[in-house]
Design a protein that fits this description.
The protein is an alpha/beta fold and 579 residues long. The protein is 48% helix and 13% strand. Bound molecules: phosphoenolpyruvate and magnesium ion (MG). Phosphoenolpyruvate binds next to strand 10 and helix 19.
Length: 579
């Protein structure tokens, strides 16, 4: 039966493919007592489900051995097969069915809980984390028991629409970044806000995504045919042939438009009245630098290094970080690479840092010990990163960017630590070159008291995602207040334009690296505020360049100055439309 669901559009484009449910085994399962005479049948039903789940893993093992498949895939398949074959899990379930006469699903969840509780006691963080794998294996068996087994045969024949669409209750940024190594066509989640880091990663992957769907996870079944319209925030389940054809056409039209934009790669990023505008790329992983270069980015304006720290049990050491940073610098050649220091905390979690300062479940993580606050509380860890970044500066043009600064003392402490890192490198006879140091303006207090930033730093970069979150008191990850997350709120516009003007008055370079910089509908507004440096996901760069090339900066300055005088939302959006 066809139906559609609506949510927050977070990453544009159209994906057509089969649903892949990511679930939680703790979800409720039916619980009932068996009659004595049904016990044998239930045991057989359970054994059959284990057998089917094992066959699925075997089939997956085949897919994992295809050349080019990520190595992690085959490692996880092996581990899951091992867990499934382990009597510690399955024997306990059989006992519960036989002796307590629990139905198989109920027995399975109880046994899982018992095993997982034992894992919580382990000292070793790696072993503790393996409980996730047990949960996933149990989910696989539960799906078979509940008749939602992966329909392997059908998948094999679904050649045309073979994209995989992940359907989840929620995805963390750490989950989503892993899609870079897997072939995921798109995703939808029940929770989440439009500028959460999960959404940002989706845009960087350039895959259609919709969040805040509320009931997708419970209404959709594995292998359902789905259309994700990431531009309009719509999900269509089991579409009829007419709708499917229309969306296929739209998908081809979009692909055509994208390929036309490629013609702009070589063109100069300049307004009609001759103002040069620098377009930089935001990247999450070193491999993203290639894409930045392909679209002709003038440099990397924001390298979110925290993704190097996620999905692993050990922290990357100085050499590993150095190699990662140097690889980006090498790809970018003589173009500048802006490396942001670790911005961990809030929605970005790294399990290797879980037991560090303040990282125990903070009562309000967005206002807690995140980003530079965390780094200053953990100077040894911060120094490792600073040394790695400085060492990479010997191989190209690096700018060091500090997130979440608000206080003059934080600036001073950071600068002192950079000096200490340099001293340590000199003592170790390690080479490094001059590095410009900049601060992110993403806390209203920073935008309202720029003095120390202008006096002590070399450049500014406005992080509009957090600036909006903190100005409007809207949790950027919370779908229930997403409708209030408004980049065009007069207070937000004032803070951005004041920061640009403040920097320009003293001749300091200033960029915008939040999501506003990549939205082509806002390019003229930012140009009119005087902005000449934008940083965004590579996928958005050419569309923004097209806007730049159609703009007259002198005219825009006059119109935007008028727009900024208004504090009425309707007037602002009316004037924005007229730009
Ligand atoms: C921002 O806050 O605008 C920003 C660019 O940083 P992040 O999205 O990583 O918090
Ligand atoms: Mg930020």
């Amino acid at each position: 039966m066809t139906f559609s669901l609506h949510g927050q559009a977070v990453s544009g484009g159209i994906a057509i493919g089969r649903a892949h449910l990511v679930s939680h085994a703790n979800l409720e399962v039916a619980q009932y007592q068996l009659r004595e005479r049904d016990v044998a049948g239930e045991l057989a039903r359970f054994d059959k489900a284990v057998e089917v789940a094992g066959a699925e893993l075997n089939a997956l093992r085949g897919e994992a051995s295809v050349p080019g498949a990520p190595a992690e895939l085959s490692a996880f398949v092996d581990l899951h097969a091992m867990i499934l074959a382990d009597p510690a899990l399955t024997d306990g379930v059989r006992v519960l069915i036989r002796e307590r006469r629990c139905n198989a699903e109920w027995a399975m969840v109880q046994q899982m809980q018992q095993v997982v509780d034992q894992f919580d006691e382990f000292e070793d963080a790696y072993l503790r984390e393996r409980k996730q794998d047990i949960v996933q294996v149990v989910e696989r068996v539960l799906k078979v028991l509940q008749g939602k087994a992966r329909k392997l045969a059908r998948r094999k024949t679904a050649a045309i629409d073979d994209e995989l669409i992940v359907v989840a209750n929620d995805l963390s940024p750490a989950d989503t970044i892993q899609f870079k190594n897997l072939k995921i066509g798109g995703f939808v989640t029940d929770l989440g806000g439009a500028t959460s880091h999960t959404a940002i990663v989706a845009r960087s992957l350039a895959i259609p995504a919709v969040v805040g769907m509320q009931h997708a996870r419970s209404l959709i079944q594995d292998d359902d045919l789905l259309i994700v319209d990431g531009t309009r925030g719509v999900l269509i389940v089991d579409p009829d042939i007419g709708v499917l054809q229309e969306y296929r056409l739209r998908r081809s039209a979009l692909a055509l438009e994208r390929s036309k934009l490629k013609r702009l790669v070589a063109g100069r990023s300049q307004t009609l009245d001759g103002e040069d505008v620098f377009l930089h790329a935001n990247i999450e992983l070193p491999q993203d630098a290639e894409r930045a270069k392909e679209v002709g980015a003038d440099g990397v304006g924001l390298y979110r290094t925290e993704f190097l720290f996620m999905n692993r049990d050990e922290l990357p050491d100085e050499d590993e970080q150095f190699e990662a940073y140097r690889s980006v610098v090498r790809v970018m050649g003589d173009r500048p690479v802006t490396i942001r220091t670790l911005d961990i905390g809030a929605d970005k979690e790294a399990r290797a840092l879980r037991n560090r300062a303040g990282n125990q479940a903070a009562p309000n993580p967005a206002l807690g010990l995140r980003a530079i606050r965390f780094c200053l509380a953990e100077p040894q860890l911060f120094l490792v990163q600073l040394r790695a970044i400085l060492r990479a500066s010997h191989f190209g043009k690096i700018r060091l960017l500090i997130p979440m600064l608000a206080h003059a003392t934080e600036i001073e402490q950071t600068l002192a630590l950079v000096e200490l890192a340099k001293l340590q490198l000199r003592e170790a006879r390690q080479k490094f070159d001059a590095v410009a140091i900049g601060g992110m303006i993403e806390i209203p207090a920073a935008a309202l008291s720029l003095g120390p930033f202008l006096r002590r730093l070399n450049f500014l970069s406005i992080g509009t995602n957090d600036l909006i979150q903190y100005t409007l008191a809207i949790d950027r990850t919370d779908g229930s207040v997403a409708h209030l997350y408004d980049p065009l709120h007069p207070a937000v516009l004032k803070l951005i334009s004041q920061t640009i003007q403040g920097a320009q008055r003293v001749g300091m370079p200033v960029a915008v690296c939040g999501e506003m910089a990549g939205d082509p509908k806002l390019t003229k507004l930012l140009l009119g505020m005087g902005l000449r440096e934008f940083s965004m996901h590579p996928a958005q760069l050419l569309e923004v360049k097209q806007q730049v090339m159609m703009s007259d900066a002198t005219q825009l300055a006059v119109r935007v100055a008028k727009l900024l005088k208004s504090d009425e939302p309707e007037k602002i959006s009316e004037q924005l439309d007229r730009l």
